[in-house]
Write a structure and sequence with these properties.
The protein is α/β, with parallel strands linked by helices and about 120 residues long. Helices cover about 20% and strands about 45% of the residues. A hairpin with a 4-residue loop joins strand 5 and strand 6. It starts with a helix and ends with a strand. The structure holds copper (II) ion. The site of copper (II) ion (CU) has 7 residues, from loops.
């Protein structure tokens, strides 16, 4: 009887610990870039909740720029680039490539929707 209570207590605290850990880990938004698009090109986040953009490139160096949040990085093939953002405003915001990558570069963009 006593042993059963111990097991229940241990299990309970383990589950509680995992839930706590999940709450502290920012959500990952994975975005892959290639001439001349991002995939996906529409992503969502929640106001005040930190997210990590994990961006990769399938072909060459691209840029990832989101002026509304003062965010930019290069996306280098063969590596994951991580950028953290805690959106402090709601709405639709454009991100785009700012490293010239050929004809069609100007159309290389996507949208972040921040829900309140
Ligand atoms: Cu480009």
């Amino acid at each position: 009887m006593r042993r059963r209570v111990m097991v229940a207590l241990l299990f309970g605290s383990a589950v509680g610990g995992a839930a706590c850990l999940a709450a502290e880990t920012p959500a990952e938004i994975r975005i892959s870039a290639k001439k001349f698009e991002y995939h996906p090109n529409k992503v969502t986040a929640k106001l005040g909740q930190p997210v990590v953009f994990v961006v990769t490139s399938e072909d060459r160096i691209h840029g990832f720029k989101m002026p509304d949040f003062g965010l930019r990085t290069n996306i280098v093939p063969g590596q994951e680039t991580r950028v953290t953002l805690t959106p402090d405003k709601a709405g639709s915001f454009t991100f785009f490539c700012d490293v010239f990558c050929g004809d069609g570069h100007e159309d290389m963009e996507g949208t972040l929707v921040v829900a309140a």
